[in-house]
Specification:
By secondary structure, the protein is an all-alpha fold. The protein has six helices and no strands. It has one domain. α1 packs parallel to α5, α2 crosses α6 and α3 packs antiparallel against α4. The N terminus is likely disordered. This is Lipoprotein.
Length: 180
């Protein structure tokens, strides 16, 4: 029972992560379509990695026989999600600043969002790492609490690329194949 509840909560948080994706007056020097393409190119592998980690976690959580095995699997998953989020953040940061009104703010919102996602995974990882496993019931209750905090922190970081910035930037996100 604990494994199923944990897997369901974990799946929700990770799937939410993979489906989220972000406007002052600072203009950048990157055309909106080029910027949207670069951002989505950075986010696509992140979404794939999160989906892969979710599938792997479900399998591992269902086969784990002890709280210690579950802890190892969860920490591995959260480490992977934290690393993938940082890689996506670096990729989005490397996209530059879109040439739209408030482009600097939009670019900062995207990188901040991914930093917060990365930090949410890292915080959850450290919380789970610190949990004792001798009392399985207490462990699973505490893991549930750690994932509730992760979900809350993650939801605070969410940005929908199709609803940020200027209309031309929103249009770019809708038109660029990498963003579909």
């Amino acid at each position: 029972m604990h494994f199923r509840v944990l897997a369901t909560g974990l799946l929700f948080v990770l799937v939410s992560a993979g489906t989220t994706g972000c406007g002052s007056t600072g203009n950048g020097d990157v055309a909106p379509k080029r910027w949207a393409q670069a951002v989505c190119t950075a986010l696509t592998p992140w979404r794939v990695e999160i989906a892969d980690l979710t599938a792997k976690a479900q399998q591992q959580l269902q086969s784990a026989k002890t709280a210690a095995q579950t802890k190892t699997n969860i920490v591995e998953l959260l480490t992977g999600a934290e690393t993938a989020s940082e890689k996506a953040r670096a990729g989005v940061s490397g996209a530059g600043v879109p040439d739209v009104s408030g482009g600097d703010k939009v670019a900062q919102q995207f990188t901040t969002s991914l930093s917060k996602a990365r930090d949410a995974y890292g915080n959850a990882k450290r919380s789970v790492e610190a949990l004792p496993t001798a009392d399985a019931k207490a462990f699973y209750t505490s893991v549930g609490s750690a994932f509730a905090v992760l979900k809350e922190e993650y939801e605070q970081s969410a940005i929908d690329p199709k609803h940020v910035g200027q209309k031309d930037l929103q249009k770019a996100f809708s038109e660029v194949p990498e963003c579909r």
